[in-house]
Amino acid sequence: MSGVLHNPHKRLAYNLTDVAVSVIMAIHNEAEYLEDSLSALRQMKASSSEFIAVLDRCSDNSKEIVLRYFPTAKMIEKKSLSWKNSIAENQQLGFLEAEGRVICIHDADIRSPPDFFNKLSAKLQGNVKSVSAEIQTYKKSSLTNLVFHYWEKTRKIAPLGKEPRGGVRLIDRNALEQVGGFKDVIAQDTQLDIDLRRLGYETKPCDDVICLHLRRITLRKTVNTQIISGKMRRQMGMPLWHVVGHSLIRLRPLVIYGYFRGDNERDVQRG
Questions:
Q1: Element (H or E) spanning 45, and its range?
Q2: Which one, of 189, 148, 152, lies nearest residue 168 by Cα?
Q3: What's the confidence (pLDDT) of residue 145?
Q4: Are residues 101 and 173 in contact, defined by beta-carbon separation less than 8 angstroms?
Q5: Residue 178: phi, psi to the nearest 5?
Q6: Is the pLDDT assigned to residue 243 strictly greater than 50?
Q7: Tell me: the pLDDT tens digits for 102-146?
Q8: Residue range 30-58: mean pLDDT, rounded
Q9: Cys-Cys crosslink for 19: which of 42, 99, 162, 270, Cβ 3.0 to 4.6 Å?
């Protein structure tokens, strides 16, 4: 299927087919990384699966690369932005088309080990409705990546700032439907964890699945990431003391700046 879904905010009726897994990948000019990312996904072993690519205003050959690896992929070509937060909208667009009992979110610039699905799905049992892999910066992409790779280890000694990263995760489709899908917020993965826990479900990281973030990191991107992180914390209603503690322990001063720039908008748009 190819086309634009005109209403990404509608609810999706819970109506499953025999598809076990729906892999959703949001793509915005990711040709540089797609080969590495898709090669692992093609080796994913599941009883049945579908691949959904959300092409977000792409101007490169990302679509051709996807079809080379997944000729039967569902292609959603988004020409304009309807939500404030593009990644959240992309994932919701994919979810509206998904038919699987398990939703797999996989970023286009991440390389996963071939057995990532088996290890994650083994933990998606009982009351656990979302399982996320450990994401590490690929240190060979650039010198900045190398520095960032080792700086990331501060997450293990800074409980105030330790949070799961949602670049590769499995979600129980029924639970995702119950919370209304993905929401129009900066950190849609964090919001999903909050919503699931409010319903009494568990969300867990899976530290024995290591996925590599391939994108080259620049100083500008580092600055923007800190500011966005601060805005996200303001939007989620995190207390100032928590934000300051995170910033000081992990040497991220611009998180505080982003926090005060945030609009503290607690209302979010539901899928």
A1: none
A2: 189
A3: 67
A4: yes
A5: -65, -35
A6: yes
A7: 999 999 999 999 889 989 999 999 999 999 999 888 877 777 767
A8: 86
A9: 99
What's the DSSP call for residue 12? Answer: P
CATH, domain 2-217, list 3.90.550.10, 1.20.1540.10, 3.90.226.10, 3.90.1150.10 = 3.90.550.10
Mapped onto helix, strand or coil, the DSSP state of residue 124 is coil
**pLDDT at 14 exceeding the cut of 50:** no
CA separation, residue 237 to residues 17, 180, 202, 241, 247 (Å): 38, 20, 21, 12, 16
Burial of 23 (0-12, 13-18, 19+ CB in 10 A): buried
Q: What gap in Å lies between CA 91 and CA 173, rounded to an integer?
A: 13
Spatial distance between the Cα atoms of 211 and 201, rounded to a whole number of angstroms: 25
Query: In the predicted model, what is the mean pLDDT of residues 152-169?
Result: 64
